[in-house]
Design goal:
Blueprint (H helix, E strand, L loop, with lengths): L1 H26 L7 H78 L4 E9 L8 E4 L12 E3 L4 E8 L4 E5 L9 E10 L5 E14 L4 E8 L9 E4 L11 E10 L5 E8 L8 E6 L2 E3 L5 E3 L13
Antiparallel strand pairs: 1-2, 1-12, 2-5, 3-4, 3-12, 4-5, 6-7, 6-9, 7-8, 8-11, 9-10, 10-11, 13-14
Length: 310
């Protein structure tokens, strides 16, 4: 037993010596490798090359799929962010436009509130079939709106109240081709005075219709011989008994003689933008005309007295 035990020990020791010798021999820097080393190295290189290329191809394929998915996810995220940015930008622009409109409306209201009683309303309906004829606002009889009251934006007159219900009203626009009510107006002309200054002279006329092709109001019955130039302002005269005076209507574009050469016709560019009628003001004049033709101050409506019961 001891012999076999010693034999195994001797074999192990010899193996260790050989291993240490080989490691020491191969670890040295040599110019040439031994043939067993070259054989083993070539064998491992061939085997490694056989498995390396498919492994690289499979790895590259899965890496390409992963990269493509990452690009897809990134593109979807960027597209969602772009859509959100577009919506946010549109909302900001709409809020800015609304803020500008309301600010301009407030400034106009403050300048007119001393002369007229104004009620601010919003447009709630505008039929595409009657786009140039009427709009519907959210104020009615319960808010003191009456038929024939003037309606304007911050920039100028747009029409009058055509019909009224309890909580809404229909506004007939100046651009309506069905409009039958003419508007008495003045063209404000600057004229020199004797002392070297200037003053304004009002040249009267009547706005009778709307030229849809040129998008201009047509003002007729202007006295012949009156010198009228472009860009002179046109305002309501108030002589018709319905529309209050001095409401801006527009500016003169050009004039021409009528068919008979007795009066002049002026074409007026409206001050108001009829494509943007979001917020409007209903104007109540401070007087009306009696049947005898006299001006009577408008009396504010008093709420009905409550009836007490016993």
């Amino acid at each position: 037993m001891s012999f076999f035990g010693n034999k195994r020990l001797i074999i192990v020791l010899v193996g260790l010596v050989l291993l240490i010798t080989i490691v020491g021999f191969t670890s040295r820097e040599r110019s040439k490798l031994s043939w067993p080393e070259m054989f083993l190295k070539d064998t491992f290189s061939v085997v490694q090359g056989i498995f390396y290329r498919p492994a690289q191809a499979v790895s590259g394929f899965f890496q390409g799929v992963g990269d493509a998915y990452n690009v897809y996810e990134e593109n979807r995220t960027l597209k969602a962010s772009l859509d959100q940015y577009t919506r946010t930008t549109a909302e900001i622009h709409e809020l800015k436009a609304e803020n500008d409109r309301l600010r301009e409306l407030l400034n106009t209201r403050d300048s007119l509130v001393k002369s007229f009683q104004l009620r601010v309303a919003e447009t709630v309906a505008r039929n595409p079939d009657t786009w140039n004829n009427t709009i519907t606002i959210d104020k009615g009889l319960k808010q003191g709106i009456k038929k024939d009251m003037a309606v304007m934006t911050a920039k100028g007159l747009i029409g009058r109240i055509q019909s009224v219900s309890n909580f809404s009203s229909t506004v007939e626009l100046l651009t309506s081709y069905e409009r039958r009510n003419h508007i008495s107006a003045y063209i404000q002309v600057k004229v020199p005075t004797a002392n070297g200054g200037t003053t304004y002279q009002n040249i009267s006329g009547v706005i009778e219709e709307y030229n849809a092709q040129e998008r201009l109001l047509v003002m007729r019955k202007i006295a012949w011989g009156q010198k009228i130039e472009a860009n002179q302002q046109v305002v309501s005269s108030g002589l018709g008994g319905v529309i209050p005076p001095n409401l801006p209507i527009g500016y003169v574009v050009r004039t021409e003689p009528d068919d008979y050469g007795l009066t002049q016709t002026a074409y007026i560019q409206p001050s108001a933008d009829f494509s943007q009628l979001n917020e409007v003001m209903v104007v109540e004049r401070d007087f009306t005309f009696s049947p005898s033709g006299e001006m009577v101050p408008t009396q504010p409506e008093q709420p009905p007295a409550s009836q007490g019961g016993k």
